[in-house]
Design brief:
Elements: H1 5-24, E1 40-42, E2 47-48, H2 50-57, E3 61-66, H3 71-87, E4 92-98, H4 102-112, E5 117-121, H5 125-129, E6 137-141, E7 147-152, H6 157-167
Parallel strand pairs: 3-4, 4-5
Antiparallel strand pairs: 1-2, 1-5, 3-6, 6-7
């Protein structure tokens, strides 16, 4: 018997165990979550999805996940507001506040003069579906309802404009 045979058998056993456990717990077969069909709460009341917003307005969407404790988020929001003001007839803008106090979030939005649609994700499910590990996160959903890009970190005006032109193809 070769001295290498026990090592080969041990390695094979480990591979079989990992694949079996992964399959049993869904790791190997888990389908990605469709974030565009996930409901989120609107500040004005009720719930909606990104798919519903696309159906209603026939425009692509820039979705920004933010929180009041996130300084880069608060610095980025006026950039998003300026873009919203300039091209809201071509692109929808949605802010989704992550796990924050509704009162505090509302105060920040008012202080910053933000007028684009706001929602909240009190449970963090929406941000988890986008594999968010930090904020801000900006997602780009085309007019067909497909999530086409996700940017982790803040965007300045030039980066936002470039991303919109690249991913959403608004009317020029």
């Amino acid at each position: 018997m070769s001295t290498h045979q026990p090592a080969r058998i041990g390695a094979a056993a480990i591979i079989v165990a990992v694949v079996t456990i992964g399959t049993l717990f869904g790791c190997a077969t888990k389908a990605p979550i469709d974030v565009t069909s996930m409901p989120f709460e609107l500040w004005a009341g009720g719930k909606t999805t990104l798919d519903d917003l696309i159906d209603e307005n026939q425009r692509p969407i820039v979705v920004n996940l933010w929180a009041t404790w996130c300084t880069p988020c608060l610095e980025e929001m006026p950039v998003l507001q300026a873009a919203h003001k300039a091209i809201s007839d071509q692109v929808q803008f949605v802010g989704i506040n992550i796990s924050d106090s509704p009162t505090r979030a509302g105060q920040r939005v008012n202080e910053l003069g933000i007028t684009y649609l706001q929602g909240r994700d009190p449970t963090g499910e929406f941000s988890a579906a986008l594999s968010t590990v930090g904020l801000p996160v900006t997602a780009f959903v085309n007019a067909g309802g497909d999530l086409v890009a996700t940017h982790h970190g803040s965007l300045d005006a030039e980066e936002l404009n470039t991303a919109i032109l690249k991913h959403l193809e608004p009317i020029r």
